[in-house]
Each structure stands twice: as C-alpha cells, then as structure tokens.
Amino acid sequence: MSTHTPDEATVHDEGDSYERKVDVLRENLAGYELTDEDLAVLETDTEQKPVQRAALPVLAVLGRPNVGKSSLVNRIVGKRVAVVQDTPGVTRDRVAYPASWNGRQFTLLDTGGWETDVAGIDAAVARQAEAAIDAADAVALVVDATVGITTTDEQMVRLLRAANKPVILVANKVDSAVQESDAAVLWGLGLGEPYAVSALHGRGTGDLLDRIVDVLPEHSAVAGTAPQGGPHRIALVGRPNVGKSSLLNKLTGSERVVVDEQAGTTRDPVDETVWLDGTPWTFVDTAGIRRKINQTRGADYYASLRTAAALEQAELGLVLIDASQPVTEQDIRVVQHVADAGRALVVVANKWDMVDEWRRRDLESELEREMVQLTWAERVNLSALTGWHTNRLTRAMGRALESWQTRIPTGKLNAFLGEVTAAHPHPVRGGKQPRILFATQPSARPPRFVLFASGFLEAGYRRFIENQLRENFGFTGTPIEISVRVRERRARR
Q1: What pLDDT digit, counting tens, does each position of 457-483 carry?
Q2: Are both 111 and 164 inside the same structural domain?
Q3: Better pLDDT: 254 or 144
C-alpha cells in the first residue's frame, strides 16, 4: 500500500510525467543536427550557492580638496575606480572600494575634500568626510607636500585626535627624491612619520600599503558582517535630479549622500546596506544618466561610465522618474537600459506629493503609451521627501527579484509549450509550419530560454510565447531572453 497522501502522489505522478516527456523529446531531438554548443546548453545546470562575506577593516582617506585623495584610492585599488579631475570638489560623497595588499583585504573609503566655514553643497561634502571617520577603523590623512602645512590641515588633525582613531599621514605629490624635504616638513603636524608618495606615479605606495595593513585590525570594529549570500544589490538610476540621493537618505534615515538642488550632485556610485522589513538591501546611488554619454565631459563623463558599471554589478535597477514632470524620452531610455542590461526592474514615480489628480491621470497615460513593450515592469508611486509609500519598495523589489531568479523545470516547460503550440500553432509559411522541438531554460538572473525549432519562428510568435510564459509563470519585474535555434534533420545513411 502506498504511503503517499493524494496530494503527494499527484505531484509525484506529474513529476514522472514531465520527466518521461523530456526523455521522449530529447530522443527525438537527437535526430537533428546539433552543435557542441547546443549540447552544452542542454546540459546546463545553473544552481548557485551563496557565499559568506565577512566584514573587512575600513580605511578612510581624508584631506582638504585637491590633495590627490581619489588618485591615491585609484593607485591602491589598482584601477581607475574614483573620478579624478584637476579641479577641487570632484568627489562629494563617501564611496567604498575593495582593496588588498599582500593577501590582506580591506575597504577603502574615499571622501570629498574637508573644509571649514563653508556653506551649501561644500558643507554637506565636509559632513560626509566627518561621517567617514566614524565609519572607519583607521584614517589616512592626505596632505599636499608641495604646499606644506595649511590651517585646514591643522584643524583636521585636531578633529582626528578627538576621534581617537589610528592615523597614517600621507605626504602626496612627492614625485622625486628632490622633493623628500617637502615631506619632512609635515612632521610638524605631530602625527608621526609622513609617508612620502606620488599617487600619480606610484612612488612610495608600497611602503604606505605595508603601514596600512599593519595599522588595520584583522576584523572591523565598525562594519557589520554581511549575512549568508549577501544582501541584494540595488542600483538607483535615473536622469539627473529625480531624487535618487534623497531616496537613499530617506531609506537610511541619515544624510548618507549629498543632496542639492543643483543637478548632477552625485558622481561616484555610493553604496549603503539598509535593513528594510527585516531584510538587508545594498542600495547604490549613481550619477544621473544623461541623454548620451558622448555629450558629457570631464568628471561627468567618468561618472556616467561608473553608473553603467554599477548597474552591471547590480541585480535590480530601481529607475526613478519625476512624477511632477512629463515622462521624457530620456526616462524611457534609462528604463530600457536596465532591461537591456538583463536586470530586474522597478519603476519608481517619485515626488508623488507634488502631483494632483489631473497629473496622475496624465502620468498613467504617458507610461502606458511610452512603456508598451515594458508592461511587465514593477511600479511604485512614492515621495522620497516625506517617505510616503517607501514601505512598498520591499514588496515590489522582492517580487521582481524572485521572478528574475525563477527557473522552470525542463519537463514542466516543455509540457506547457506543447499545450500552447498545439492550441496556437505557428502560421504556415512557404508551405511549411515550424515546430518547437524542445525547450530549455539554461539560466536565470535573468531567465533565458532556448527553443530548438524545425524552422524560423517569426518575431510576433516569439512575443506570443513570451506573453504566455509571463501569463502562466509570472516573471513580473524581469526581462526574459528567448533565443531560437533552427536545426535540420540528420541525413539518413
């Protein structure tokens, strides 16, 4: 006598039925010409295991404007990750980058230039630098050796002493042995030996890095350990001045990034892990995506490149649009950019507190018209300023990411497509009717389907298949990739 309950038996029988169907279809497919790549796709197993990420010690890089902090960060990291330009004030937020030296891993915290008696955006930048001290295990104070000790440098030393954190004094712009005497003057700051380096040319950075790993603890006393698998990475993207930084500040409950009425305030991607509804999420604030990258210059150009890179490293793109303004071609281009990058997608209509009933109706019509090919996107209306409806973000992001990671079992997929194509076969063209021979989903993140067919499947029929997959399996908030491989029967021998 079977010990299965009726429900268990039904599921078991369905599973056996799916497996038998797959075996039959695979056997039939063997009669067609298949390439090595085809065989690899058919055997793909994409299950991924989470990786534990420990908290790394943190080194904050501080200094007044234009002393070469970002150049030093790029030198230590080993590539151009921070925006650098020969004008002060390029870096505005505190930005974290992974680094390592002689097998020791740590986090570098780049900051904007610290100054006293400043107002507006410069004051906000200075506050970000001060917050970096609290967020670090040790501090590297960068001073321009060619200028010598300034009043601002002396005030920064007093600030660091009050923080009671280990400090490494970096004498930058020492490009040759002739300038070593310039660095010696910095003993007068009372922070011990100044490490003479040239961030531009790499001179002296090896000795500096040896000192850094000596000072940093094995485990950070300020950074929290990431949970198993790490939090999902969310890129905040959109055209300039739609409220990306304001939303991140509202979610963190602090002035995590600089916000100013001036468009284009953010230049380097800024990431912050936030706990929402008991779940950690890493949000990455990015520079506004402009109309075309080749229309930008200087720091804005490099900021655009970093925004694109941040999206590539993210799992979901949170696209902000200004609900109080008409939807622009640029807004739709950003949404399409996220979809083309293969990322889960949530469209956020921000500044909802500034729109009336008439504008809300117009916005619905605009989105319906402009996003006719992207109706699958998740959508949230909120106000980053007041926090209204920000609690709906986690549900929307969770649904989109769940869809983005969904993988349909091969047997279930083929059984479903068999029913769909039997009810709605492909139109006959040239006296022939293409058939789907076999289907598989070799990967998720985003869901990618490969259809083996006996003939060319028209674009309209592919859209029909996609719509049927979405209607029956969800896939809300994620793009779907469908590729068709037309294969001929093997010649009889």
Answers
A1: 999 999 999 999 999 998 999 999 999
A2: yes
A3: 144
Q: What is the largest CA-CA distance in the chain?
A: 92
Q: Rounded to whole angstroms, how far apart are CA atoms 370 and 349?
A: 14
Domain endpoint, select from 404, 421, 446: 404
Q: 301 and 185 in one domain?
A: no
- 159 domain residue, yes or no: yes
The full DSSP string for 317-340 is: EEEEEETTSPPPHHHHHHHHHHHH
Under the banding of pLDDT at 50, 70 and 90, the label for residue 21 is low
CA dihedral defined by 385, 388, 394, 397, rounded to 10 degrees?
-70
CA distance 352 to 331: 16
Torsion of CA 254, 252, 347, 356, to 10 degrees: -50
**Which structural domain range is residue 356 located in?**
232-404
Shared domain for 139 and 205, answered yes or no, is yes
CA angle 152, 266, 239 (to 5 degrees): 160
DSSP 62: E
Residues 186, 119 share a domain: yes
Q: Which of 162, 188, 215 is the last residue of a domain?
A: 215
Question: What is the pTM for the complete model shown?
Answer: 0.63
- Do 337 and 273 reside in the same domain of the chain? yes
Is residue 174, in this structure, part of any structural domain at all? yes
Sheet with 481-486: list strands edge to edge: 436-443, 448-453, 481-486
Convert the pLDDT of each residue in 203-252 to its tens digit: 999 999 999 999 999 888 876 544 445 588 899 998 888 888 889 888 88
Measured distance CA(437)–CA(21) in Å, rounded = 12
For 97-118, what is the mean pLDDT? 78
Residue 446 sits at the vertex; the CA angle it makes with 267 and 390, to the nearest 5 degrees, is 55
pLDDT digits (tens, 9 = 90+) for 36-65: 888 888 876 444 444 444 578 989 888 888
Does a structural domain hold residue 6? no
Question: How far is residue 83's CA from residue 104's CA, in Å, rounded to a whole number?
Answer: 25
CB-CB contact of 38 with 485 (8 Å): yes
Claim to verify: residue 96 and residue 193 sit in the same structural domain: yes
Quick one: 93 and 179 in the same domain? yes
* Beta bridge pairs of residue 280: 275
- Look at residue 249 in the predicted model and tell me its pLDDT: 84
Whether residues 191 and 241 share a domain: the answer is no
Task: Please classify residue 176 by burial: count the beta carbons closer than 10 Å to its beta carbon, then call 0-12 exposed, 13-18 middle and 19+ buried.
Answer: exposed
Q: Is 441 contained in some domain? A: yes
